[in-house]
Design a protein that fits this description.
The protein folds into two domains: 156 residues, no CATH class; 89 residues, Chitinase A, domain 3 (Roll). It has a four-stranded antiparallel β-sheet with strand order 4-3-6-5. The protein has a two-stranded antiparallel ribbon with strand order 1-2. With 296 residues, the chain is an alpha+beta fold. Helices cover 55% and strands 12% of the residues.
């Protein structure tokens, strides 16, 4: 499964630069001429300046109306780190999304939590509402443990299925034939997963066949699978409550653009630079158009 720890925009990555004490201090010396902090600022202003400035405005406004505790940030950080087997793997993931260290990630988590609070303020998340949501989406909180053998050719899949039907060892055949390099060496073991973690054809089979039996050959975009499910677990409402609340709030969240525009109006935000004012207006209009198109 692809591991993700945070969604980080270009603007967020550049906020630190925009906070520098700007001037004519030399950043780079060359025989062709020096590059100063002002040069860097001017280049940023020409390229990503509007998006960076808009993000800085949003952060100021959000912090003025909402707050996030260190305990909340640490809880989200813990969840993020639990996705990785080692500290090295976690640090590598940070580098891949352009974050220097754990502190930088915590700042992004804090901003994300502020945004969540803004778009979900006023949403009724009573026990009654959450339980009703859980009952309606109960399948989302069922997990399975399974192994699979994946091959590209249907004929090959049917031959392997025949061997399994004749008593062949699933683990040995997975190691010998499966092209899923992430699981083949482990006898095809996928570990625990939810329906939404897998493509629909795979999930439909994995959550319907009898435990410890071998499925028919299942075709997906990845090839041809043979599946063996060893365990299925249905989380109770109490066990799944945190997940249920997060999903429920996401479903009932307001448009972030609508919320932030109202907050900026309350705070009487006025952009003094006319070029930035025009650029940010265009940026917001473009974002609104894209959001409306995605919703259709």
């Amino acid at each position: 499964m692809k591991k993700v720890i945070a969604t980080v925009t270009l603007g967020a990555a550049l906020v630190g630069l925009s906070a520098c004490s700007l001037g004519n201090d030399t950043l780079v010396e060359t025989q062709s001429g020096n590059i100063t902090k002002n040069d860097l600022y001017n280049k940023m202003a020409e390229t990503s300046g509007p998006s960076v400035l808009e993000q800085l405005i949003e952060e100021k406004v959000l912090r003025n109306h909402y707050s996030v505790t260190n305990k909340e940030v640490e809880a989200e950080l813990k969840k993020a780190k639990e996705q990785f087997s080692t500290d090295e793997e976690f640090k590598s993931a940070l580098e891949n999304i352009g974050l220097k260290n754990e502190s930088a990630l915590k700042k992004q988590i804090e901003l994300s939590l502020l945004q969540q609070k803004a778009v979900t303020e006023g949403v009724d998340k009573s026990e009654k509402k959450l339980k009703a949501y859980y009952e309606k989406h109960k399948e989302d909180y069922e997990t399975a443990k399974a192994s699979h053998i994946l091959v590209q050719d249907e004929k090959a899949a049917k031959e392997i299925k025949k061997k399994l039907d004749n008593g062949g060892d699933f683990s040995k055949l997975a190691k010998e034939y499966s092209i899923d390099t992430a699981t083949a060496s482990k006898g095809g073991e996928l570990g625990e997963f939810k329906r939404s973690d897998m493509v629909s054809e795979f999930s439909e089979a994995a959550f319907s066949i009898k435990l410890n039996t071998i499925s028919d050959v299942i075709k997906t975009d990845y090839g041809y699978h043979i599946i063996k499910v060893t365990e299925r677990t249905q989380k109770t409402f109490k066990q799944a409550k945190d997940e249920v609340e997060k999903a429920y709030l996401t479903e009932h969240a307001k448009s972030f653009q609508d919320v932030i525009q109202k907050l900026k109006s309350k705070d009487k935000v006025e952009i003094k630079d006319k070029d930035f004012k025009k650029s940010i207006k265009t940026l917001i209009e473009s974002s609104s158009t894209n959001t409306a198109s995605s919703a259709q």
